[in-house]
Amino acid sequence: MPENSTLLTEYGWNATLSETFDALLVNSPDTEPGRVIRVDRGQCDVAVATGTVRALSGSNSLCTGDWVAVSKVTRANTTPANTTPVNTTSETETPTVTSILPRSSSIVRSSASGKSEGQVLAANVDTVVITTASDGDVDLGRIERLLALAWESGATPVVALTKSDAAPDISAVLAEVSAIAPGATVLAVSAETSEGMDILDAVLDGTVAILGPSGAGKSTLANALLGDTAASCVLEMGRVRAGDGKGRHTTVTRELIPFSGGRTLIDTPGLRGVGMWNAGEGIDKTFPEIEELISACRFSDCAHNSEPGCAVVGALERGDIDERRLRSYRKLQRENAWNAARSDARLQAERTREIKVLSRRIKDHYRGRRQ
Question: Which residues hold GTP (predicted)?
Answer without folding.
Answer: 162-165, 212-220
